[in-house]
């Protein structure tokens, strides 16, 4: 708030050669939703910014694919 960091979450996925940018982007989305949940004073519409086209397209996809288990976690977190 007012240029100050309020809170942060971090998650170590493991070695970089074992994970993709796509997985990292989705984990970032999951952590963002968790931060919003912790700060219940947030009212109204919230936007999440992404720069990974595959992750953006996956938000509306409900078919299985590599790493889709993370998108399932993201959708569950939105409920």
From TrEMBL:
Superkingdom of source: Eukaryota
Protein name from the UniProt record: Uncharacterized protein
Organism: Boletus edulis BED1
Lineage start: Eukaryota, Fungi, Dikarya, Basidiomycota, Agaricomycotina
């Amino acid at each position: 708030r007012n240029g100050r960091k309020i809170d942060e979450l971090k998650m170590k996925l493991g070695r970089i050669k074992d994970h993709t940018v796509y997985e990292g982007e989705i984990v970032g989305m999951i952590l963002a939703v968790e931060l919003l949940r912790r700060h219940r004073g947030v009212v109204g519409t919230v936007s999440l910014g992404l720069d990974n086209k595959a992750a953006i397209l996956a938000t509306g996809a409900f078919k299985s694919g590599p790493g889709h288990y993370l998108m399932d976690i993201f959708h569950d977190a939105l409920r």
